[in-house]
């Protein structure tokens, strides 16, 4: 037994030593690579900038034969090719205009796009995801069919970066096709997908007008919300048509989008949704009405202070406080008998940092404000009970 323990200790020590040596070698290689890259950057970046500036100014280089030979030699090295790609991506990300197409063609002509596409055959999932990202930054339409092939992937990073790449390339039909291929199997969060849709660099109206009517209600709702984020006023009527849709997801998406667009023509329809069967819809409708700045909806919101769901009550209270700047309606709540309404108004006032201003800062001005201050103070001091109680 002792001999077994002895051999185990020796084996463990050898493994630890090997790991230690491996880490040292890896760190040394990493430092060496960084030094080489830094040296190459000093040499190559001025040269690359010179070629790019010529392309931008003239759409062609002065000595194409010499440039081609030189670039082919540079691009043989993966490290040097990475530097060239990073510099081109810098220009593509930070500058817009017709020369973008010239730079994209440059990447295609010199095999940069082809080299990246080959990397998609890797067995390393992280390398595939990074390659999808890189193809998106280059924005070559040549990569579209290969990116679409990644859509059935169950790996979230690959799916996310492939979708984001298609958004940056900005070709409408392929972007729409990507979403039809991931129907029912999408693994990404709602926020991630909306960010991807928001970042689409092509003609957004075209994809919105198609995809807000998608059969899949989840995908349809994502495009509706994104259309609201992008302030697509031309689609207001189409979006508003979903306020009465049987799908809760679509109703919620339509409310959010119209809340961003703030088209008062649909104020009444959103107000009616305060009585929706779904508490999520009621809560969002209350929150959205607070953004419109129309005090005419306050009586409807006052009724929802007694809603059976806390979020509906709270959102209604916050909306009332935002709309009722002079607090003309709040005193009516404290003169009433509804304890739910009083408690939620106080909770909302605390959240908006209004309690200290109204209740504890003494005389605050008008007779109405002083009356309200006393009503709230008395209610708080009596432990949530009114004098009538």
UniProtKB/TrEMBL annotation:
Top-level taxonomic group: Bacteria
SMART domains: EZ_HEAT
Keyword tags: Lyase, Membrane, Transmembrane, Transmembrane helix
GO MF annotations in UniProt: lyase activity; oxidoreductase activity
Membrane-spanning intervals of the chain: 6-25
Entries under InterPro entries matching the protein: ARM-like, ARM-type_fold, PBS_lyase_HEAT
Protein name, per record: PBS lyase
Taxonomy of the source species: Bacteria, Bacillati, Bacillota, Clostridia, Eubacteriales
